[in-house]
Automatic annotation (TrEMBL):
Native source organism of the sequence: Xylanibacter rarus
SUPFAM superfamilies named in the record: Fumarate reductase respiratory complex transmembrane subunits
One annotated Gene Ontology cellular component of this protein: membrane
Protein name, entry field: Fumarate reductase
Keyword Transmembrane helix appears in the UniProt entry: yes
């Protein structure tokens, strides 16, 4: 099948799964912002998105998208390395027209993956997984607000999350317009437009996450009623 065997097909899969993950991040950021205004409202959202059938289906679908995106990213990276052969060792300077993010997508991807594992440990493990398995956790599985407070009261986690968000920003700012290019929506006029749209959108998206991290880190967030 061309989606699996050809370079263009793999890029299409990468682009489709990448855009889907960006949409999920948009939803996740919007949900997190609720915590800035009301801990009770945030916990209501967490309870609604608890261990029920639609949340489980969505979680499995999201996990599948993430795995496919990561696997295809690895396959494309290895394919590009094989195609370049020994030439990649001869390059000593970065071409002026090639973005830093484009040259370091694999490194950024690894940082994003490690950050995702940390995020799953801090939140998904203590919430949905705990509700499904009945394991003992510090707070009620639906008390997402308490887990946000606990996580970002630790300076180490705050720094790690900021690094993670920065890596996601670099990854998405390149990946967004690259996906549009793969879809063939990047003519002479729209190429620069997509780059600007992607930069603005991903910046606002990551700022939404960052504001939540910093608000809880510096004790500016609301408390439960």
């Amino acid at each position: 099948m061309w989606l699996c065997n050809s370079s263009i097909g793999r890029k299409v899969v990468m682009s489709v799964t990448g855009i889907a993950l960006i949409l999920f991040l948009t939803f996740h950021m919007s949900m997190n912002v609720v915590a800035l205004f009301s801990g009770d409202a945030y916990n209501m959202v967490c309870e609604f998105l608890g261990a029920n059938w639609y949340a489980l289906v969505a979680t499995l679908a999201l996990a599948a998208l993430a795995v496919i995106h990561i696997v295809y990213a690895f396959l494309l990276t290895m394919q590009n390395r094989r195609a370049r052969g020994n030439e990649r060792y001869a390059v000593t300077t970065r071409p002026s027209k090639v973005e830093w993010a484009s040259q370091n997508m694999l490194v950024l991807g690894i940082i994003v993956l490690l950050g995702l594992l940390l995020h799953l440990f801090n939140f998904w493990y203590n919430m949905m997984f705990a509700e499904l398995t009945g394991i003992s956790v510090p707070h009620h599985p639906a008390d997402g607000f308490a887990y946000i407070v606990d996580t970002f009261s630790c300076p180490v986690y705050v720094v790690l999350y900021i690094i993670w968000l920065a890596a996601i920003w670099f990854h998405l700012s390149h990946g967004f317009w690259s996906a549009m290019q793969t879809f063939g929506w990047s003519g002479k006029v729209w190429f620069q437009r997509w780059k600007v749209i992607g930069l603005v959108y991903t910046t606002l998206l990551m700022l939404g996450f960052l504001v939540v991290v910093l608000a809880f880190a510096f004790g500016c967030a609301p408390s439960l009623l």
